[in-house]
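Researcher: We're teaching a course module on how sequence relates to structure. For the next exercise, students receive a sequence and then see the predicted structure as tokens, so they can try to spot secondary structure elements on their own. Here is the exercise chain.
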Amino acid sequence: FVVRHPPPDNQILRVSYERYLFNTNAPSIDADRRTVSVGEATVSRSLPDTITTWVADAVCISPEDGIGVSEKEARITVFQNFFVEHNVPYSVKRGEIAHLRMAVHNGFQRTMPVRVSLDEEVPGSMRIVEEGEAVQSGCVAPGASAVFVFNTTFAQLGEVPLVLSAQEDRSVECEGVGEPDVGTSSDTVRFDIRVIPEGVQKEKTENRYMCGQDGDEATFSLALPEDIVEGSERAFITVSGDLLGPSLENIENLVSLPFGCGEQNMVRFTPNIFVLKYLKGTEQLTRPLSNKISNYMRDGYQRQLRYVQRYEDGSFSAFGSRDPEPSIWLTAFVLKSFAAASEYIDVDQNLLQNSVSWIAKNIDPETGCFQNIGTGGAANHDSSVPLTAYILAALYETKEAVPSLNFSQIEQGDDQFSSAINCLKKSDAKLTEDSTYDLALKVYTYVLTGEHDRNPELGKVAEELEKRKIEENGTIHWETRGDSGLSLNVETTAYALLALMKMSPNPDIKEQINKGIRWLVAQRNTNGGFVSTQDTVLALQALSSYAAQVYGKDYDLQVTVTGTGREEGEEENIQINNERKMLLRTLKAKVPSEVKVKMSGQGCAIVQSNVRFNVESEGDNVSFALELNPDGCSLRRLDVCVTFLGPEQESNQVILEAQMPSGIVPDEFQLAQEEKKFPNIRRSEIVPDSNTVNIYFESLSKDSRQCLTIPVSVAAVVDNKKPAVIKVYDYYCPCRKARAFWDLEACNEV
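Model: And here is the predicted structure for the students to work with:
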């Protein structure tokens, strides 16, 4: 049935509902509370207005009869005869002129004279370009709609609240007005429009691990470059009394990269295991926190099943059935993670066994090494040694987590995985030729499997790794590719620290671990993760292992922060005790400024400074060339040409991110058709929250130019458009990138 009614005057519609009512109600029952006397429950609610059909069903539970579900859905349609509707772009850049289209709908059988106004809630945040346009009037025919356009520009960044009002105004001269049905009709809606700064977003993050018992003090310099976009700067200081506090706060968004493939999805799954294990082991796990993390794990587990290459053999690949072959590296990664998660959530044991069996089939019988099948991992090498070390460690961790699995195809008698271990030992003859990453991974694998203790000769591998450590500013770490390979350096250091933490403890090893953890903490991003997938997973594994070892219950830490307030010398004091350790405290800070932090008492904390700003442009690494619209610019398409410049002959996974200009949206159907033209494009996706298109290349060949088209359309009219950023980068090393700006002001109307 249909309900028709006029809304109350000046009603503000603040929420757009997908689900409106979810409630538990008890039906009427008799005095002895055993039988239902009426068998029904009545719920009265005022439904949201405009034109909406609501679908309702019911589920009942009875101690005698179990669960019952309603046979038919109940439907109710609410209809508002007079209402206003807004059509605005997803976002606009400051200084652009947005043509905001507001529609007034007249469901009455008479002409409606109306007055429409658009107002700002925050004075000075919006300006109507043409004087007198803030209030407009007109006539809306019976059963029809009329559109009013407000040409606006915005000075305030962020979510700008606006109020749109439409009211019947009989002073407006119209033909066929007639008498009003019920009073005077009006409608008001409040909405936000996102205003973003122009240019390229940048941020600078500095982390310190500081302890009260050591009386640690630090000064954070919140500086800005000279070429920032005015008004885009903001700064924060965050403090957490637990090493995993920042990661727990942002467990679903640890890295600022897309999550569109099977490896990238794992960074939203695996860290939950380390956090849950740590909280449980240190008796900090509460029921709400356990439920929250377990739900994240279940969601990640279900998402990862999309990337099963073939269920019957348990293999996985980066893009599932879209890939021509599975990835042995990714299968090992998923296997050990699923096995560890099975302690907390339900995991298909048959799938785990299938994965073990498939990996076992891919051992080279002559060398004992695992064959490199498929792609994946930040450290793809021509050598099979690092791959074998990784898979061997994964199998060992899997067996520890799920002892019931059958490993007979890999084990030989009493020797666990002996053929794979022999593969690694053969490579030890040329240790000086190994990369530091290979050394760290081998040492971790030897220590994990017990070979380090059983075979004293393997100590020379750890000794070579020890020689390559880098000590600076009271920290130690290991490097593989210098500054351009931060992701791999984090991964290498994490492996070294995990190995050290499993060795027999002595004062020297403990000191190295402490210094290594301080370096790892310093590399953290603002979300509590690191650079990419593997480095984030391994670094959090190392941090959680360390946090469990040093955990203490006698926390009484005072953190004094000076310099964040508007008054010079103003202090903010943060008290951290056992109950408040996991909390993440965030303070806004002036920028530019210097913030001083001082620790006292008992305990340690992570202190992070984060400065965010936009710049007009920035220099890029020369690993890629990016060309836009070589045949001319159009409002209907974006043509992009990408070239990988090396130095390798083949790149890692490459991601193209194309931000849409204000008022422009990508065409999802045509984009999917374009994707099919290129065998090395594994996936394309539209990210609604940022109006961005992501395109995933499996790899690019050196000096090979690849051009593709992103179909777009105009969703809202915006003048004085600011350029949108298009960038291409190596997923495992995002510093290897190129950027270009898509400027539509000179485009043809074609």
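Model: If you want an answer key for the exercise: The first helix runs from residue 245 to 249. DSSP finds 15 helices and 37 strands in the chain.
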